[in-house]
Specification:
The protein is an alpha/beta fold. The chain contains 13 helices and 17 strands. Helix content is 34%, strand content 23%.
């Protein structure tokens, strides 16, 4: 180990990697003042040294061989900023086996292979830090791992994907359809050319898995949580949400129910218009946490972007440098728990919530009564109904219902029966209503 400085190497120099390189070079003196010794950038591994980058590092730092960094005894900290599963997983595991500390922003890697990675880090007495993997520049990892370590977490819920929040904000504010709002997000640089990972919820689900591990000591499988994206939402749903006093958000939720069972899910949800999360617009992220001692807190800020995410990576590097210098690495387990449970979240069929339902029905007498009868047979109580008349020359009309709390299995059974009616001509749109998320803003 070089005692006069802490040396780091970067795997990847895309958007985040370029931001980290920029901060390490341009903010070198400032970091030195905070840390007390230099944090020195030794090498940056890239696929193509001639490619254009968001910020251009000195050419002599670039290499196309990641093994000039991984396994190099002169480099103490490896920052994996490549994304994807392979070769990122292989390189991270080899860095750990070489005794190098690792910083990563790769939520998919941790969500799918976190147990293997953290066990290897513990065995080799090195750290894996990942503040940048969830919510960009918001220090949510450190908050759950250390700041709230004395709290039993009742629940948390949040907005964990800036792309989808930007799209939903445009649909809410301007009445755009999904395709138009998505195109606007792509033009603004918030959405990829292939947006599937974001708009179908997988990016946010990986982050939800990591936060669940920090909150409850359980690292659930992606197969064990309900994941639902935003691509089926229509301007009609946003119109009715406004009429009913709600805003639609893609909500990540994790909690323990009254029986202590773990509930983990991600899907569009209707929130009261005056709730705190309802006001989180654009590409911002936010997480609301309820602890038994601290009560309720809200963290919000930029959930992505070159410099906010680089800020979180650098914070991890500084902490690692301090821990290594003081010979106190792994003072806190990577996920804040001395051991992880094998508990599985309860199935979505056993979840209970309220529902918004938009039927498309023929404008005929008795349709509402027949649907209400089906719901009554399943024990589902209807709280509110909006029934519109057909426009001239049209037979189909929307029929909107807001229900009281019901079990998901009962709702699914009722909708299967209702959608089989001759008078119901399209599959019913279902959006869950989350009144528990109704922490209010200031009046």
């Amino acid at each position: 180990m070089n005692t006069s400085q802490t040396t780091v190497g970067l795997l990847g120099c895309g958007n985040v990697g370029a931001g980290v390189a920029r901060m390490l070079i341009e903010d070198r003196d400032f970091i030195n003042q905070k840390l007390g010794w230099p944090l020195s950038l030794a090498k940056i591994a890239v696929r193509d040294a001639s490619s254009r980058r968001p910020w251009t590092p000195p050419r002599e730092l670039l290499t196309t061989d990641p093994y000039e960094i991984v396994g190099n005894p002169d480099i103490e900290v490896v920052a994996e900023l490549m994304g994807g599963i392979e070769p990122a997983r292989t390189l991270v595991m080899k860095a750990i086996a070489s005794g190098q500390h690792v910083v990563t922003a790769n939520k998919a890697l941790l969500a799918l292979h976190g147990r293997e990675i953290f066990e290897a880090a513990a065995a080799h007495k090195v750290e894996v830090m990942f503040e940048a993997a969830v919510a960009g520049g918001i220090p949510i990892i450190r908050t759950l791992k250390e700041g709230l370590s004395a709290n039993r977490i009742h629940y948390f819920f949040g907005i964990l994907n800036g792309t989808t929040n930007y799209i939903l904000s445009r649909m809410t504010r301007e009445g755009l359809d999904f395709a138009t709002a998505l195109a606007a997000a792509q033009k603004a640089g918030y959405a990829e050319a292939d947006p599937t990972f974001d708009v179908e919820g997988f990016d946010a689900a990986h982050k939800l898995i990591i936060l669940t591990a920090l909150a409850y000591g359980v690292l659930p499988s992606l197969d064990d949580i309900h994941v639902e994206g935003i691509s089926r939402l229509t301007p009609e749903d946003f119109h009715f949400a406004r009429e009913l006093g709600f805003v639609i958000k893609l909500l990540a939720m994790s909690s323990r129910d009254q029986e202590g069972r773990l509930e983990v899910r991600l899907h569009p949800a209707m929130l009261p218009q005056d709730s705190l999360l309802a006001g989180i617009g654009g590409a911002m992220n936010a997480v609301h946490i309820s602890g038994h001692a601290v009560g309720d807190i809200l963290l919000n800020g930029p959930g992505a972007g070159m410099m906010p995410t680089a800020s979180s990576v650098l914070a991890d590097m500084v902490e690692l440098a301090r821990a290594a210098r003081a010979n106190c690495s792994a003072r806190v387990p990577a996920l804040g728990w001395c051991r992880l449970s094998d508990e599985r979240p309860k199935p979505m069929s056993e979840v209970s919530t309220a529902y918004y339902l938009r039927f498309t029905v023929l404008d005929r007498p008795g349709v509402l009564a027949r649907i209400a009868g089906i719901f009554a047979e399943k024990g589902i109580s209807i709280a509110q109904v909006i029934q519109k008349s057909a426009a001239p020359g049209e037979e189909a009309v929307p029929l909107v219902m807001l229900t009281h709390t019901a079990a998901e299995r009962d709702m699914n059974a009722a909708l299967k029966e209702a959608d089989d009616l001759d008078s119901v001509i399209e599959s019913t749109m279902l959006i869950r209503v989350e009144e528990r998320c109704a922490a209010r803003g200031a009046a």
